[in-house]
């Protein structure tokens, strides 16, 4: 969109209004009329006169000749100006250089990405969601030294990131690099002249490939505006570098589903713009430092499937924007801090399979009116079933299974109109019969697990609608 704006501005400024002789007009030569004609003829010019750069046309033909499409071929007609071809945009200089190729979701296959390399003025390249394959050729990035947006996501590009030897440029205007969901591999090294010179980089997404080595933080040095980094779903290993803390404008850091180990460096907790910290399914150890509560903009904190220990930061309630707190399957100990219920925007709270203890009845759950998913299963909570949970009107799934809770499921449960999943199995509850009669009124309830609770003659011993676990995620 910014691009469109720039382009139409440039058009207005650069297009010479007076180069075309005035057409004969039937109205009296009146200042207003003259203006109309000038504007109309200028428009006519814009439509008819752009004739695309012949070298660029040749590169495009090469490209189109080397890709095929199972839906419909690129219908790039030689008798039409290439600036008007599907997906192509040109600039407004006299050269009419090709500046944009945008052909997402075209089912294009082939592997000759290098044919676009000669389009020296290309600033936007979007070939996302196609079937393009093969490696990115050496020098690919530095050849496209006007590129601002590169989106090659959802293809089958393979091999390592290209070497960028021999470039005499040290500044590249690239802002967005999306190479996600391909088959790329190897390390992302600080020897990449291209990435080191990407001073304007805002967003870098390499998720869902097979990259190895440490997650790079060197871009934090050169790109002060860096705001989105996504390294998830790869084979990155090693520790998160403290240098990551220099990405001071970072709002999204995603590196989940890798092989990252060590502690989360406290420098991360200085990234005051951070909104999403997504690091699940790694081998992270150590504690979650209380200084994390400085990240006032955090909406998503997902650190599940790691080996984190220590307690939940006691000031967690300071994270007043938090919507998703998912710390399940770790080794977290201690009690749930009372301040947690001050995170009133929470939608998902998952603390399942940790070593949490304590009495939940004092927590002001009723403040969590947006909460949809509450999973506190498989810990060591004691005391009565926390009644206040049942005043969270948005709840769709509740799991307390595998604790040491006593008492009864309160009758307010019938007021949870969206409830589909309820699991209290493996606790020490009483009056399961009473609960069952109440739960009949929860119309949407489709999964109920109450097995293995306190048993005597009057209570059914094994009450489950289903045996499999359909807890929503
Ligand atoms: C190419 O464009 C010309 C002029 O508009 C048209 O006559 C011709 O049919 C087109 N060719 C194809 C193959 O679409
Ligand atoms: C890349 O393209 C995909 C699909 O066409 C889109 O969903 C995604 O947002 C784009 N990436 C960026 C960074 O704009
Ligand atoms: C990165 O790309 C993937 C798709 O491949 C997408 O799901 C994810 O949201 C993107 N990350 C960011 C931070 O935009
Ligand atoms: C990874 O990419 C594949 C193939 O494009 C896609 O089917 C899958 O959904 C992606 N996975 C993630 C987690 O983005
Ligand atoms: C930081 O990122 C925001 C968008 O997330 C942007 O508006 C702002 O200009 C950036 N600041 C710097 C110093 O780059
Ligand atoms: C993950 O890292 C460990 C060392 O920390 C290594 O032994 C293991 O092979 C790695 N696994 C994968 C799948 O790369
Ligand atoms: C975090 O920022 C504070 C100032 O805001 C600074 O004093 C402190 O040294 C920083 N900590 C780290 C670990 O960078
Ligand atoms: C938790 O800690 C115990 C002992 O300290 C260890 O045996 C277990 O593997 C740990 N679990 C996780 C998920 O890290
Ligand atoms: C929750 O927030 C309120 C208002 O900011 C504050 O008075 C209260 O002490 C907080 N509760 C906890 C347990 O932190
Ligand atoms: C849990 O807390 C409630 C309310 O403070 C109290 O009445 C109850 O005795 C406590 N239960 C246990 C097991 O500590
Ligand atoms: C069992 O539960 C039902 C329904 O909530 C209630 O009416 C009944 O009083 C309870 N029985 C006991 C002994 O608490
Ligand atoms: C492998 C392949 O198809 N190469 C073709 C790429 O496009 C040029 C120009 O159309 C052809 O000459 C090549 O044969």
Molecular structure report:
It is a single chain. By secondary structure, the chain is an alpha/beta fold. Mean pLDDT is 87; it is low at 1-27 and 36-48. The longest helix has 19 residues, at 31-49. A 16-stranded mixed sheet has the order 2-3-5-7-9-11-13-15-17-19-20-22-24-26-27-28, with no helix packed on it. A 6-stranded mixed sheet has the order 1-4-6-8-10-12. The chain has a 3-stranded parallel sheet with strand order 14-16-18, with no helix packed on it. The protein contains 7 helices and 28 strands. The structure holds 2-acetamido-2-deoxy-beta-D-glucopyranose (12 copies). Keywords: Leucine-rich repeat, Membrane, Repeat, Transmembrane, Transmembrane helix. It comes from Brassica rapa subsp. trilocularis. Its main location: other. Residues 54-91 form the Leucine-rich repeat-containing N-terminal plant-type domain.
Précis, in short:
This protein has 473 residues and is an alpha/beta fold. Helix content is 14%, strand content 19%.
Helix content range: 10-25%
Our Rg estimate from Cα atoms comes to 30 Å
Bound molecules: 2-acetamido-2-deoxy-beta-D-glucopyranose
* Overall 3D form: elongated
> Number of DSSP strands?
28
Beta-strand content bin: 15-25%
Family: Belongs to the polygalacturonase-inhibiting protein family.
Subcellular location: Cell envelope
Domain Leucine-rich repeat-containing N-terminal plant-type: 54-91
Pfam family, one: LRR_8
